[in-house]
Write a structure and sequence with these properties.
The complex is a heterodimer. By secondary structure, chain A is mainly alpha-helical. Chain A has twelve helices and no strands. The two termini of chain A are 28 Å apart. Chain B contains ten helices and 16 strands. In chain B, the strands form four sheets. In chain B, strands 8-9-10-5-11-12 form a six-stranded mixed beta sheet, with helices on both faces. In chain B, strands 4-3-6-7 form a four-stranded antiparallel beta sheet, covered by helices on one side. The chains are: A mainly alpha, B alpha/beta. At the A-B interface, helix 1 and helix 7 of A face helix 2 and helix 3 of B.
Chain lengths: 272, 312
């Protein structure tokens, strides 16, 4: 079900982008860890977190009350939800998934690829595997950055074993985004359209996340928000995987994957 | 009969390399193909002609499984063009009309990727074709000229010695010398029993290369014939020297037209079988006669012309 020449080619093509993203991510997480552990949060910081609006937003974002989790591990887990972490992971994921299907059609190189003796199912599966092969290690760069940052900042009490579970949750969220983006990519003849549609989902999730903090009526829609299934602090507090959330994310990934596969294997590849 | 197809050998079971019956392709309200019937014999060089937007590219893309026909049946090498497209692509080399390649790769890397994707074993043929087309494959494709990209696309289509070559305007951007090299390659492929289907707007190319042509217009095949048969029906320039100036008072056949007298000679055109021309001339007091080669230009022009409702 996998085409190894295509896998190898794709991994090689995106290796440069991966290295650049990983380097930025690693440096950022190290700096973040140094910043939060070198400077104690202090009373002023604690008072800031007690502000109802801030507390509510963070509760929605993190899946639990941040004041309950002002431990070294809890604070370190913020690295996994920081907007810059998200931005880097999402930009990399969307660049890759949109580039492999819609991007090939947009450039006109799909003519070459789709006339090689590789079935479309193989092409789509291989594109997905390549994304997973690069995106999951990128999530682990965050964990590595936390570990390295904790060492540099001489932070004590950071439970890296607990953060392993957070990292796997992050991987699951990234895979959902990649699956959705791949499905959209399979439907669109233009890369720009695919990126825009995928970005809309991410934007929707973040906006809904913030709005839910302001208006509880929107909790009705929380199940449509992939961030709802990423309760970082619950993982830290309970020191356990949130299997229900992981299951939902895995199911969503498979469903989007299936949709993308069906669409791509049946669609026309128009001439440029 | 068996022919090598990369790493796969498949028994040739059909005398027709391509067989399309009532092939239709609809894009919403727009009909790109309206019931195409086409039969491309195995081992032939088949020219596919037609004005821009006539449906040539659409038909070719259906044959390689890039497009799904809305209706009708398309069989390539005896297999269903859509459902068996992977098996077909093992045995087919395709060159799109507008060759797009991975600009960041070198020519060598692109060909190596295609070779691996085809199961390997094409190294010798890649080396031979690279020499034949005189292409520097160590350069990055971004720095290639249009003609060089076309050559690279051709090598990618030919490198696995496919049983069927589907080439959409293959000589575009090629210099005359490389065009001649391509013709030699295509003739050699046909001589080995492989089939070539190519589209073109260059009539001299079609005339010199093809065994058979199909002309498509408005999504329908309006002519499917051998070059010989077309030539028999084509217009010939005829120059006569006739002693008796009163000859034209006799009844002239409808195939004869464009009469022009000058210095005792008569110049005209004959549209039809040459046999009939000779029998007509036999009844005239002809001192000398020069019969030119058949000119397909006018014949094709008539097919291409928008207002030419019926076949000429």
């Amino acid at each position: 079900m996998i085409d190894f020449p295509f896998l190898r080619r794709t991994l090689r093509d995106y290796a440069g982008l991966w290295l650049a993203t990983a380097a930025i991510l690693f440096i950022f997480v190290n700096l973040f860890m140094y910043a939060i552990h070198a400077t104690p949060i202090g009373q002023q910081g604690a008072d800031f977190l007690k502000l109802p609006f801030i507390r509510r937003i963070l509760t929605v974002m993190l899946g639990t009350d941040p004041l309950e989790m002002l431990t070294a591990t809890g604070i370190s887990a913020f690295a996994f939800t920081h907007p810059l972490t998200w931005t880097l992971l999402i930009v990399f994921g969307l660049t890759m998934t949109s580039g492999m299907i819609a991007g090939e059609m947009d450039r006109g190189t799909m003519d070459l690829l789709a006339t090689l003796p590789i079935s479309r199912t193989r092409l789509f599966n291989t594109a997905g595997l390549a994304t997973i092969c690069l995106l999951i290690p990128l999530c682990w760069v965050v964990w590595l950055g936390v570990k390295s940052g904790a060492t540099i900042a001489k932070a004590e009490g950071v439970r890296m074993d607990v953060l392993v579970r957070v990292t796997w949750h992050l991987c699951a969220v990234c895979v959902v985004i990649a699956s959705f983006s791949s499905a959209v990519s399979a439907m669109c003849p233009r890369r720009g359209t695919a990126v825009a549609a995928s970005f809309f989902l991410v934007f929707y999730a973040f906006v809904l996340n913030v709005l839910r903090a302001l208006w509880s009526g929107l909790d009705l829609l929380k199940w449509t928000d992939f961030l709802y299934y990423y309760p970082t602090m619950q993982v830290v507090r309970q020191e356990a995987y949130q299997w229900w959330d992981m299951g939902v994310l895995a199911t969503a990934s498979i469903v989007w994957w299936g949709i993308g596969l069906v669409v791509f294997s049946r669609r026309d590849i128009p001439a440029r | 009969m068996t022919l090598p197809t990369g790493s796969v050998w498949i028994e040739m079971s059909s005398a027709l390399a391509i067989e399309a019956t009532g092939l239709t392709k609809q894009y919403g309200e727009m009909r790109a193909l309206g019931g195409v019937n086409l039969r491309v014999p195995t081992g032939s060089i088949f020219g596919f002609l037609g004005p821009n937007g006539a449906g040539k590219t659409t038909a070719m893309r259906i044959f390689v499984g890039l497009l799904r026909a809305t209706g009708g049946d398309a069989r390539v090498l005896g297999l269903d063009a859509w459902h068996d497209s992977r098996a077909i692509r093992v045995q087919v080399g395709y060159l799109p009309g507008d060759v797009r390649l991975y600009e960041w790769m070198s020519g060598r890397r692109l060909l190596a990727f295609c070779n691996r994707a085809r199961g390997g074993g094409c190294e010798a043929e890649i080396a031979r074709l690279t020499m034949r087309f005189d292409l520097d494959i160590n350069r990055v494709i971004r720095n290639y000229s249009r003609g060089m990209k076309q050559k690279l696309g051709l090598i990618a289509a030919l490198m696995h010695r496919p049983r069927l070559l589907i080439l959409d305007e293959p000589t575009t951007a090629l210099d005359p010398l490389v065009q001649q090299t391509l013709y030699v390659e295509l003739r050699a492929a046909a001589a080995e029993g492989r089939t070539v289907l190519f589209s073109s707007h260059t009539l001299a190319e079609v005339e010199s290369l093809c065994d058979r042509v199909a002309i498509i217009r408005g999504g329908r095949i309006i002519e499917d014939s051998t070059i010989d048969a077309l030539q028999r029906r084509a217009v010939r320039r005829v120059e006569l020297r006739i002693a008796n100036s009163e000859w034209h008072k006799r009844t002239t056949p409808t195939a004869w037209s464009g009469i022009e007298s000058r210095d005792g000679s008569v110049i005209g055109t004959w549209k039809g079988e040459v046999r009939e021309l000779l029998s007509w001339l036999a009844g005239l007091p002809v001192d000398d006669v020069v019969i030119g080669a058949p000119d397909l230009e006018d014949l094709f022009a008539a097919y291409y012309h928008i207002n030419a409702g019926a076949a000429p």
